[in-house]
Write a structure and sequence with these properties.
Number of helices: 14
Helix content: 25-40%
Shape: elongated
Distance between the termini: 67 Å
Number of domains: 3
CATH class of the largest domain: Alpha Beta
CATH architecture of the largest domain: 3-Layer(aba) Sandwich
Number of strands: 18
Strand content: 25-35%
Structural class: alpha/beta
Radius of gyration: 28 Å
Length: about 425
């Protein structure tokens, strides 16, 4: 196989009518792209094509022409609509031939299960001439590894794998070993995510002068996911130490520009950060949720320290009872007493140090939502109430309220929360 080490590009293809008609969610492409990225290959294209031979041949030829590596999943079964083998052979202009090692592997698969091999499964032992077989320890569909020459370009490495995720995952180490042998994966690639909350994507970008620019090294990308802004810093060098030395000044600039908008540089989510902070203080948390359906309590319990930190949780369809007793009274002593009464009323008397609550959600013309987040320390009594306004699609309303609850507690614990 030919070595390729200079800025290789890749394409990931999903094969099958069930993909293009929306009946099956394609998770393989996401997973494969991450594996290729870790090998230093830039994935430029994702594609999907149905079980149609002319369409598949056209898509394969296009991928071969523009990408150094192509990884396709699906279409390697034994039925009439499994056309990947034939499409790849036609796209490359070679014939299919039966591989005896593949026949033996398929026969052994059935033998281990005390079943005769159906004659139709011999189809899975057909490979485009010049291919190498990739063993499949979990299924009857071997993978295909084919190098295709291209005029005035390095060869294209075309790899076909089954669409069944569990088979794909078990076959990948063999694929990765082959790709490394061809020269990939020699550099150390560092990805570091900086997670922020409290400002929109465009606002965060405007606060980082000339940092998010294509072509710079380290490269800084930006995206948003459920109200969290993620800055991904990427660089590659000969060692991890060199990578981290290059990334540190970028991290410092981000911290200086964004301040307390940054809540994590190590992959943790808001709920992880909050539970870690509470655990360090040996404090227990009680949560009163309204308008969130228990989302915050669920996030907390799924963290490493959540089960030991969360003392009690109440989920109400409306915060009106809580508002009646607490919402209009900012006296800490009164608030602490009201909180204790709530604990007793629900029969959940627990050694909570902090109460986190969201007070009623109000809408103005259906566009702007307003609510209050209360952080209440029971002993000594202390109350912090923060009013928040936001505009968001109704589908993200609960998530937004929940994230603001956690972020308000984070800021309070960091002693950076705004005064009442």
């Amino acid at each position: 196989m030919t070595d390729r080490t200079d800025n290789p590009t890749a394409e990931v293809l999903s094969i099958g009518d069930e993909i293009v008609n929306g009946r099956l969610l394609d998770t393989n492409s996401q997973w494969i792209s991450r594996q290729l990225e870790d090998l230093g290959v830039r994935v430029l294209y994702h594609g999907a094509v149905g079980d149609d031979l002319p369409a598949m041949v056209a898509v394969f030829r296009q991928a071969i022409a523009r990408s150094d590596y192509v990884v396709a999943t699906g279409g390697l079964g034994p039925t009439a609509d499994d056309l990947t083998r034939s499409a790849l052979a036609e796209a490359h202009g070679v014939a299919l031939r039966e591989y005896s090692e593949a026949v033996r592997a398929i026969e052994d698969f059935f033998h281990r299960r005390n079943r005769p091999m159906p004659e139709q499964n011999r189809l899975q032992a057909m490979f485009p001439a010049g291919s190498q077989m990739i063993a499949n320890p979990r299924g009857t569909a071997p993978g295909i590894d084919l190098e295709i020459s291209r005029p005035d370009l390095p060869p294209c490495r075309f790899i076909c794998l089954p669409g069944v995720p569990v088979e794909l995952y078990e076959m990948w180490p063999e694929v990765e070993a082959r790709l490394r042998a061809s020269g990939l994966g020699t550099d150390y690639i560092l990805h570091q995510d900086v997670k922020c909350f409290g400002a929109g994507e465009s606002q965060v970008e405007s606060m980082l002068p000339d940092l998010i620019r294509r072509g710079r090294d380290p490269l800084v990308g930006i995206n948003a996911s459920q109200n969290i802004i993620i800055l991904r810093i990427t660089t590659r060098e000969k060692s991890e130490d060199i990578c981290r030395a290059k990334v540190e000044p970028v991290l410092q600039t981000i911290r200086e520009c964004l301040g307390n908008l940054v809540f994590s540089t190590d992959g943790r989510e808001l709920q992880d950060v909050v539970t870690d902070m509470l655990s360090q203080r040996d404090w227990r948390l009680a949560i009163l949720e309204s308008d969130t359906g228990g989302m915050v309590s669920d996030w907390i319990t799924q963290t490493k320290r959540g089960p030991s930190v969360l003392s009690a949780s109440w989920v109400l369809p409306t915060a009106q009872p809580w508002q009646d007793e607490l919402g209009t009274n900012d006296d800490p002593q009164h608030a602490a007493e009201a909180a204790r009464e709530w604990i007793q009323r629900f029969g959940l008397l627990a050694p909570a140090d902090i109460i986190l609550a969201a007070l009623p959600l109000e809408s103005q013309d259906g566009e702007i939502w307003k609510f209050k987040v209360a952080v209440l320390r029971l002993n000594p009594p202390a109350l912090r109430v923060r009013q928040i306004s936001f505009s968001v699609h109704p589908a993200y309303r609960r998530v937004t309220v929940g994230k603001h609850m956690l972020n308000t507690l984070r800021l309070w614990l960091s002693e950076t929360a705004p005064e009442n």
